[in-house]
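dumping this here so i dont lose it again. seq + smiles for zinc ion
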Amino acid sequence: MKKTLTLLLLALILENCLAWGTLGHSFVAEKSIQTLPKELQNFYLQNIDYLKNHASDPDHWKKKDAAEPSRHYIDIDFYGKYPFLELPRNYKEAKAKFTEKTLNDYGTVPWEIEKFQAELTKNFKKKDWEKIILNTVILGHYVADSHVPFHTCLNYDGQLSGNNGIHKRFESLMIEKHKNELDFQPTIAHYIDEPLIEGFRIVLESFPYANEILKTDSLATQLLSEKMIRLLPKADEFKSFEPYYEKLYNDTWKIAIQRLEKASDVLGSLIFTAWTDAGKPELPQNFKVGK
Ligand SMILES: [Zn+2]
């Protein structure tokens, strides 16, 4: 029953649930390129428009492909208590223990990161420049999603704690409202030994922030009138809810920036790792994916 309800609620929010919004996803794509060594960076810079413009594509695939939504999250607390060791990190072992259906119901994002990072390595080995870019878009999207705290827990929209609609308010509306302050220094991409373990490390890092944001959300909601509190869960804009958004921003903006910064660092590092594992092939000086 609980699971049915969870799935029903998920279906209800999917339409509006574009993690990090288009803005956040394209921002992570852009910043991740800045972490790369020059040679690799030049190749990606030629395709920067494509990477930015298509960074949210996997969210749009949800409408056509019923299997797509579960690739964007994992409700890791379904599997017990932090650090959720009940869930084997190896996909085959997790499937044997919990069934494929359960894994799909509660999300597969760490395994998607593993899968698309391996694909990227393969395409670097084949020197398939077009596929490298297309692959990077998909990998980048799942990496960015896994950095959103509400993509890692059962209470993904505050629906279990009376914080309905927090998912979009935190990751999309607040980002949109403060887009001019969206900036940080890029890091330097590094080699990642085990992309699968990295996928789970990100999820475990993201998870505790959900509760922190929910606490702020509860306090910020109290700053609104009763009428506005009723309107907040379904509101698609921030202008009518100024006191709420001021409090949310003051208390959680640092978390949002830190998650975006870490997502850029991890994406850049996974690209660097794929290129390194492929033997650092020489990259073309003039290659641009169309549209
Ligand atoms: Zn997504």
